[in-house]
């Protein structure tokens, strides 16, 4: 009798790890590191329960993938055991390239390297260690495998990734109205000519899914307090990089120090495997550990922002529907500069403005409905879903945020 | 130490009955009768858990009302203890005039008497028994009380009634994606110039509420199987009435017999209190008890439809987006008549067609948003809610349904 | 692509019906009738949400059985496809012989025929209709199949029946602390020498399961109000039988009438298949339909008890830990007789006394633990579970209950 | 209209912060620091969802306290507004003296200073800042206030602290069978002669609560993997202290460095407020930040244990019911030493043994039941609760744990 590895998940009850290979991948330090990267970065400043990690999300997505594939098999879609395992691995590793506070740091600690690219590099590195056993997973992940539905399950507008993270984020934030009925959506999935489709009777679940996702964006992911905290983090890292590149040394981990000192681009990761290796040592604790140090740092920018994080004295933010005029921004900048009594050159660390945007449905990456008559149509053209077309409009909001006060000495 | 009356509710945990008067109302036979009227009629043919009653819904709505009023008081709205109790009574009794399988039988057992009218008559009857203690509740219920928000909480497009029934129906059907976040909506409610308003930051919850409600309509309330079962019930009662008015006697309860025999209109209820008293003896068990008898009745219409209910051999229904042409209906009728081998005169008992309709937002009964700047605007005009305007479009669907087979002897 | 039949269940999300044969069984009138028999009889007088039916419970148990067998297969236990389907059928039909308000009416409407016997007769009747396809299920159900664990899953102290009903009753009553962690228990199940065992690391789940079950007994199944309502029902049926056997006719369904008139024993069911057929027409609605009629019946016993049900004016009950002395009972009877002003001969209809009992663990039907060292031991001997031995003590409670008041005219 | 401060809690929905003073306390850096201290230390190695913090727990406990006091008021117990607020503050701050990974570090980073003492010192420090507004809360917390039930709600065998943490831990670990029905227990609470009592009808909830708590101990708090991880942490800190006191400097935060270098006793905290101030700068991130640094430290003990944490390569642990003999321990130590090839002097860093213990009910701190006849009795003497007496037996388990392998260079 071989004991099954199982994991507790408050969202689904139990998650079974279905194969030795998958267990070995989960056990790998690259994957274990996801235990130390929160799924929602700084969102716990607004929703204190939102402390769940990318580790749990990846496992949850693997679990849903396995339910989905079982269901498709029951409906008669032929899925081989290797395709099954590869799809599970592909979803398990789809976010493996995320660094700490990913979205925020993609554009500050790194110089704008998409995490998808780093995920691919990391999966390829793992594949070398696992002697090519991840070939098929990589092929699915890169959408080179002929059976397109497998990639669509990993990455599309109705992929398993979203089904898990929406449910999980909703669970841990406590925003119950974000519930999406992933169970029903999965039951409605089918494969038609190797494409992922949704049976027509599931259209209201899709509409509700898109609406719930929209809600989660404005209520959680783009919540003004989260936007403000992320901006603070970006400013903090930017300052540290500036100082590091001026030659200052920090008592941080050597990997973090490396990324502070060196401007790195995707090609550097591609040409030098050591850099990826370094990157895969980083996690949220490097940043938080630094904040704990920097709260007493002589540099007043590092000190102030670090202390703001530790006392939840975040930048005051104003998030509105209409853009601010250049004059208004200018005026607010000037007022802030005077109030904080800082040199103009440092204002950018304590004053930020910009926009956030979101859409409900992305027309270019359509969700396909299989009608009762066997036709495949875009969900946005379904006669009784007037909402969806409207939801494809991109909504933008504009913000200004700034420090409330500083300790200058 | 006075023990509090409490009731278990799987939806909210516990419901406290807050006053002696309210306890006496709940204990009254008119209210206890709601224990025997299901909230969702025949929906359990589709969702087997949907067996909850109007009794539980009324108590749940009272519970939410009490949370809502507590919250409004915390926000500074002055609500006197008598207003508080009256609002609780008004919501508790808002559905007291419902008969068995209400929506279906409003237009078959009764001749189209709206249950709201019967609710008022019943509350007035109770008020006589309770020596005028329900005066204020009646005034709120009839929207004659000057502080309009109290009536709006009882009856409007975002009333406590809906907040409870959507949550409750969602819970007992298991359609989890219908979750509406009633908690958050209640927290966002405020009173502005005696009108109920929603604070601006709650707009996404409202949007999601409307979208969830729409989902529940198509997924549950207007589910094709429910539509079909209700049509069968209407046909069954219509047949029984026809026979009763031809002089046939049934072994049913005397009250049910009375309503089968006599065509009654609202004015009959108003002029003769005995009729209301009779009506308030009816519940689902009268109908089900009759079905159990009629399954062996010599009349083949009663027998067949009753048996269909008991074996879940429901009318086959086709529910589509576009109207059927008169020719198509004619053709289907003829085919059905031939297949079932029945006289044309009886075809209406076994063949029905019609339409169902629903809307997401009713522009005429607007939901008011209180903006951060203190302005009151219709939710449908909020800049970043493109959905809502679209949801005010009425969606209609068309159906044809018919018996699959009959036992003629 | 073959569409899977699925059912919504608020407890588990979705239940899949895994084979054509099982679908046909569920569709059979004998099984559909379980839609009209509540799992918890009159318990909704205490817990208004407890309206769930034996239909839903049977489906839920089938669902858990399927999860259990999948899990055992993963652990290496060989289970053939026919064993799998037979085990599902056995659990699906384990309660098929229950009549309306089963436990109460087993000893009043029937003359003490255990529902297990009627279940066997019913499954055999179904087997004839299904041309022997239920042979293996019957063999498992009757514990004649050599692989004992299959029967143990259907009927033992830790069977799938209990795992479902405890969870389900807990869900619908709202007694959340009755939660048993069925998921974990199932994961801990294993098969050792064809016996069902629990892996040692699961012992705390077993302890908690037994403790939760004990709680559910005292908090729900033997709640004093339920005991009182059941006693009333027994008295009502007893009266109706007495009158029927004196020649009185009721306007009830012919099947109900048949059982009121005729004293029937197990051998009658065995010798005459028509009797079983009649029995399988009965459901809760026959009883409730009769109560609706009897509320106006000239017999004052029928009238009074029926009205008490309809207005929730239940017998007042006193449930205590120590037996009442004969004198005390005598005194209370006399007082009740005088208060109600009824003849002594009728007192038994309005006054009852007796005892209820429960145990936490039944030593004679042990739960087996498989230790890490591969030994099988009784859970009650596990060193660090002092509780369980203690829980095998039978706890008895004693009650007296009586009508509060009567309408005599 | 004054906006209420509310917080999202997936466990309870919403938590309202009921007063300005309480809001100011929550906003204080001492309290905000609890955001960075996990409730369950290293338990997420077993239950990946268990990442919730002392911050959330403290707020949840305050929420339950407020429900409890509302309920007691409804039952007629007079509770003044200042007592109400003070009780909320007392429970809010009951754990404020916890350091990072509290239970583990109480006896390694500190020299065995109970966190309760540090909580008192911290509350007193806050009281000075808040100009004496916490006087009454302190009096309740120290059990000097005459109305004993207020202290019993803060700290006793059935206190609000436990009601929250059991529910919360159960929610975030996903161990659903640990559900305790806090709602019902709170409804059953009453005050009798200024003592907290439970109404008799609540005894089964109490029994279940104790049983669930026992389950949570063995299933979660004393789970062998958690025991092993905590032991590793203690060994890591012990090593760091040893090195620090030999004069080694670490690049950690100055506060952490201070506690590594200086052996401190309660009297030091009492005599020098600066030490408490330093202590209240520490949180989990100091430890995790150090682990990230130490993974590359020249000291092989620090390096190895840090890496084990980062790759979840925990000490292998054997947890059994019977004590190990000295010989067995000796033998295992020797084997471990040889296998790891380390000097004897270092063995203690990589090999540990000891015992853990737990009890279900602590007879010395009884839970009082108020019988229907108005008598107060210990729950353990209630006639039909044979379990509880048995649960007061202390259960001990014994463990040996050791590193699996080392990197020596």
From TrEMBL, chains A, B, C, D:
Gene3D superfamilies: Hypothetical protein af1432
Record-annotated HD domain positions: 54-166
Membrane-spanning parts: none
PROSITE patterns: HD
CDD domains: HDc
InterPro entries: dGTPase-like, HD/PDEase_dom, HD_assoc_2, HD_domain
Domain of life: Bacteria
PANTHER family noted in UniProt: DEOXYNUCLEOSIDE TRIPHOSPHATE TRIPHOSPHOHYDROLASE, DEOXYNUCLEOSIDE TRIPHOSPHATE TRIPHOSPHOHYDROLASE SAMHD1
Protein name: HD domain-containing protein
Organism: Algoriphagus taiwanensis
């Amino acid at each position: 009798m071989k004991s099954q590895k199982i994991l507790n998940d408050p969202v689904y009850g139990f998650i079974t790890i279905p194969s030795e290979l998958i267990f070995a991948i989960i056990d790998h330090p690259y994957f274990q590191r996801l235990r130390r990267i929160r799924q929602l970065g700084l969102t716990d400043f607004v929703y204190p329960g939102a402390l769940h990690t990318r580790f749990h999300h990846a496992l949850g997505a693997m679990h849903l993938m396995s339910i989905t594939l079982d269901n498709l098999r029951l409906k008669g879609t032929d899925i081989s055991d290797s395709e099954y395992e590869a799809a599970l691995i592909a979803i398990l590793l789809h976010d493996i390239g995320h660094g700490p506070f990913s979205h925020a740091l993609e554009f500050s600690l790194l110089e704008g390297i998409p995490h998808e690219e780093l995920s691919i590099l990391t999966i390829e590195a793992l594949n070398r260690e696992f002697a090519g056993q991840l070939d098929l997973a990589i092929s699915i992940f890169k959408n080179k495998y002929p059976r397109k539905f497998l990639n669509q399950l990993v990455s599309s507008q109705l992929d398993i990734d979203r089904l898990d993270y929406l449910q999980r984020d909703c669970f841990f934030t406590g925003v119950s109205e974000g519930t999406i009925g992933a169970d029903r959506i999965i039951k409605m999935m089918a494969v038609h000519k190797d494409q992922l489709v949704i049976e027509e009777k599931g259209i209201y679940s899709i509409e509700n899914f898109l609406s719930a996702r929209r809600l989660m964006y404005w209520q959680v992911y783009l919540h003004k307090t989260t936007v403000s905290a992320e901006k603070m983090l970006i400013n903090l890292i930017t300052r540290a990089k500036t100082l590091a590149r001026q030659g200052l040394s920090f008592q941080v981990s050597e990997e973090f120090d490396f990324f502070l000192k060196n401007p790195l681009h995707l090609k550097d990761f591609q040409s030098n495997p050591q850099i990826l290796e370094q990157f895969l040592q980083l996690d949220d604790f490097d940043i938080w550990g630094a904040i704990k140090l920097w709260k007493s740092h002589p540099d007043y920018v590092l000190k102030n922002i670090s202390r703001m994080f530790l006392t939840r004295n975040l930048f005051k933010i104003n998030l509105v529907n209409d853009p601010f005029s250049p004059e208004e921004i200018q005026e607010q900048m000037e007022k802030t500069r005077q109030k904080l009594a800082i040199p103009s050159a440092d204002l950018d660390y304590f004053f930020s403005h910009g926009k956030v945007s979101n859409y409900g449905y992305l027309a270019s990456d359509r969700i396909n409905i299989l009608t009762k008559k066997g036709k495949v149509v875009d969900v946005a053209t379904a006669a009784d879903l007037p909402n969806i077309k409207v939801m494809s409009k991109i909504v933008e909001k504009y913000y200004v945020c700034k420090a409330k006060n500083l300790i200058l000495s």
